[in-house]
Write a structure and sequence with these properties.
hydrolase activity; globular; hydrolase; 5 helices; 4 strands; Alpha/beta fold hydrolase; four-stranded parallel beta sheet; Rossmann fold; AB_hydrolase_fold
Length: 162
């Protein structure tokens, strides 16, 4: 499944109603393929991927996030831009921040870079466990994560391992 919805300005209106629309796309893909799906999300897309996995873990095989600040956007260079782009969108309440920090109940991989330049790298890390791993990549910018060779190797290796 690819975003294919233009500029991602974040959820406009109620976050859960907005997530339900994305959730439906995952359900359709699951039904069409007849098996669980892996979701790869970059930046805000990783937050969506994690939330969908929490809502419907029976549909999700694995979540991979690339530079996704689920640990909080308040310590990032993106906070001001997010606020400007998200006028009229869902607000980031303390309850919402706590919710986003909860890791999904499915295998998960978080990829981050100290040289991201947009999000604070510490906010992109999950609690490691037998099914959850963090990977630091060297020299990857936020916008370059999706084409960075080390990132691509990690994604392929993690998806192949399951």
């Amino acid at each position: 499944m690819c975003w294919q919805a233009g500029l991602n300005r974040g959820p406009q209106g109620d976050f859960d109603e907005w997530l339900a629309r994305l959730d439906n796309k995952v359900r359709e893909l699951h039904d069409r393929q007849g098996r669980t799906v892996s979701i790869i999300g970059w930046s805000l897309g990783g937050i969506y991927a994690r939330e969908i996995a929490k809502r419907a873990p029976q549909l999700v095989r694995h979540v991979v996030t690339l530079g996704s600040p689920f640990g909080g956007v308040e310590a990032s260079n993106a906070q001001t831009a997010f606020r400007l782009l998200n006028r009229g969108g869902a607000s980031m309440t303390p309850a919402m921040r706590a919710r986003l920090r909860l890791d999904p109940p499915v295998p998960a991989t978080a990829i981050y870079s100290r040289t991201d330049g947009v999000v604070a790298w510490r906010s992109c890390m999950l609690q490691e466990s037998a099914t959850a791993r963090n990977f630091e990549v060297s020299g990857a910018s936020h916008c370059g994560m999706g084409v960075h060779p080390q990132v691509l190797r990690i994604v392929v290796d993690r998806l192949a391992a399951l």
